[in-house]
Amino acid sequence: MPDIRHQPIAPTRTQRLATGAEIDAHRHDDHQIVYAGRGVLTVTASTGTWVAPATRAIWVPAGTVHAHQAHGDLEMHLVGLEKGDDPIGLGEPTVLAVGPLLRELILAYTDAPLDDSPQRARLRAVLLDQLRVSPHQPLHLPTPTSPQLQDLCALLKADPGDNRTLAQLGRCVGASSRTLSRLFRADLNMTFPQWRTQLRLHHALVLLAENTPVTATAHQCGWSSASAFIDVFHRTFGHTPGTHHGPPASHPG
Fold it and tell me: What is the largest CA-CA distance in the chain?
């Protein structure tokens, strides 16, 4: 990612972005929690892409070069944390579950005045406690380093609904299914079906954020039926596609 901007302090604020808007590659010396109160957010780094609807947040550790993209009208809440405040303890971006309490804490913390009041300090302490116990979510789509996998993954990113087998795709990139299976495990630590399902779920979140109907989303992402899509979506996110945005984003006060 060229022209990397360096922002020493990770900001704490609320920012609104129109669908399709991007924040170019940059890095902070501080850690950051990025939460989409409305819409869907993707964060892209050299090692992959992470996606989060309103029931998830993305942990971006200090020094990580990353870019943001909005899907749907995005209300993005940014929480900057000094290096000494490391409730996650991971060196790469991670998707975190956001329950009702953590959601309200993030909204309150990013909407409140930036001051050194005791009230804000207490709010921050509870926020850190909730982040420490927030479950991590498997919503990472890793970026391959193998040229053959890069070509194959590019084909599927261009059309997540492509249902060709690994052997059929292998003929397009000049590799056998056995070789590609081995590369998926060695390079991405995932099987091919696992990676393709992650890709399809990422794409589904984007389509749903852009108000694509559930049935159309299922077909565009390669599921044989809407019910099959709903089942996978529910098992991954804990709710159905029709409700994946969660409650309204606006926070009183």
Answer: 63
Q: What are phi and psi of 83, to 5 degrees?
A: -55, -35
pLDDT of 250 above 80 = no
Instruction: Give the residue range(s) of CATH 2.60.120.810 domains in the chain.
Output: 5-140
Superfamily for the 144-243 domain: Homeodomain-like (1.10.10.60)
Residue owning tokens 């550790």: 61
204-229 per-position pLDDT tens digit: 999 998 889 999 999 999 999 999 99
Instruction: Give the bridge partners for 7, in sequence order.
Output: 28
The 10s digit of each residue's pLDDT in 170-206 is 999 999 999 999 999 999 999 999 999 999 999 999 9
User: Residue 175: what are its φ and ψ, rounded to 5°?
Assistant: -145, 150
DSSP string over 157-220: HH-TT----HHHHHHHHT--HHHHHHHIIIIISS-HHHHHHHHHHHHHHHHHHTT--HHHHHHH
Q: How many CB atoms lie within 10 A of CB 168?
A: 11
What's the fold here for domain 5-140?
Jelly Rolls (2.60.120)
- What Cα–Cα distance (Å) separates residue 204 from each residue in 21, 95, 121, 221? 18, 17, 38, 7
Residue spans in the chain of domains classed CATH 1.10.10.60 = 144-243
